[in-house]
């Protein structure tokens, strides 16, 4: 089980626009067995999870350790994980939900277990909200010195170009 991947997928899930089943299926690219099972109910439950999870990322970005821990614990209480061992691809590994779990239950379980493990292993301030205005995407910071501030290279470049132009404008003769 790759908890770091689950944590990063959690940020991707939070950033995903899931208005309908087709959007959810697009989000699940590479996981064909889940794409086939996706329903409108899964979309509704995942949109609710997005609203519930965002405050955890915002707390982390603000350095609110208690907010991160309390938020994750509350979500784990609402969405208990039922791990199981499987060998469907030739080697033993852990899945976070039973075979009867819905797509939403599986994704929420992966998300929460991944974030809890990340917070315990790397610290509660490794989740963030992009610093580039007007972007509101979230990210997981796995950098060695906890220096990530942007959700993507695109936002980082855009912010750096804007800062450069502002500095040039400030020193330009009037």
From TrEMBL:
Organism, as annotated: Nocardioides deserti
Database matches in InterPro entries: ABATE (IPR010852), ABATE_dom_sf (IPR023286), Znf_CGNR (IPR021005)
Stated name of the protein: CGNR zinc finger domain-containing protein
Signal peptide location: none
Highest taxon of source: Bacteria
Domain Zinc finger CGNR: 126-168
